[in-house]
Amino acid sequence: MEQLLNKIYFRGDKIIWRIIVFLILISVLIIFASADSLAAKDGYRKGAYFYLIQHLAFLSGGFILIYICHRLPVSMYKNFATLALIISIGLLLCTSLYGYETNEAKRWISIAGIRFQSAEIAKISVVLYLASVLEDNVFDEFKDVIKKIALPVGTVCLLVFIEGTSIGLLFGVICISILFIGGLKLKFLLKILGLALIILVLLCLSGITIGWPKRIATAAGRLSDFSFAVTVSALGMTGILILLFVSSKLKHLLKIFGLALAALALLFVLGLAFHWSPVVRVVDKMENIFKKNDVETVGITQADRGKIAVASGGFVGKGPGNSTQRYLLPLSYSDFVFAMIIEEYGLVAGIIVLLAYMILLYRAAMIAKKCTRIFSSVTVLGLMLVVVFQALVNAGVSVGIFPVTGQTLPFVSHGGTSILCTGIVFGIILSVSRAANNQEEISKQKNDEDKKYTPNYTNEKISEYNE
Question: Is the domain of 308 the same as that of 243?
Fold first, then answer.
């Protein structure tokens, strides 16, 4: 019986397990209250209980994935990292070509009748791949960084960014953070950042002039409180300055920069002279950007509804099921679920939920300190950053700090792909935690042994990979 209990015992960081249970309880309470609005969106064809049962099934599946993944050895995730990244690139390409379009973005794909978001899977694969590459390589030349990091990871970020601006930007921030945590040289990190900013500027200019990618125009509209043109220009100049600052061949970069400016100027002159429509559209749109719009937008946006929900919640909230904005917010059960938490349970509950995510990040840092391998420590911190950054963005959208991005609250919002993938993330983190704890126990036991046994294990390499 004792051996059976040991086999089914939930190992790893106990605080993380408790927070997972807490998030599940919060999720059930909020979705139970929002189930009626979900049914109303579907015209009450399936009823409110259908969506509650569906959500409970997703949460159960996510919890099962946590348990399975936390029992698997850490070495398996490292061996699977490169293949996972290749599969993610393939899924993202298929999504871009054959995916379902929702809100002018192709984020969903169906395989064998199962519909999911490939970007959620890509988040996990990118972190595992970066952790694996950072452990296996010592980067002394930037061309190796380009080949093993910038090209494969940049491809994923680009594919995600084209169809989902907010998710792509979040990808980029997470990748830069992981590279910094993993100890990549600062000069290489700055060069990657500079290249990313330049590519971002080119995509933004392409989006606001010729309409590709389509999501850029949407993102620009959501950034209406800021000068989009000034932001794009600042990003471009920052990227160029970073490249110039860290490059050892300044004269070559200056020549390239000069030629690019000359080509751009010539293109505009010829375009205006011959009334080339793309150039004319560029000039018209740039004029419109700097013109003050005298026509005010009529009506209340979903961002306004989120602020109303937060403001009406007060410190203690309206009580479970008493939310009024859930019927008016299009995505109260996913993108604005944090606003629903505050409206029904108050600002205190919202702070507690955010504090739970902060504790998760702290526990991940504690686990990383115990690890003896770069892959394990980078994986734990990288995956937890994915969870925490996404939670902060979701909360920021609800209170009006960030524009509407479409990010869910991990393991709380309604959504099968998000819950299942977050379950895999937690499972991998707990797998590393379990192995690190076992490694620590073994080390303590061996330190307590008699010195006469010392020669038998002094040359043995102990790490979480032995698990």
Answer: no
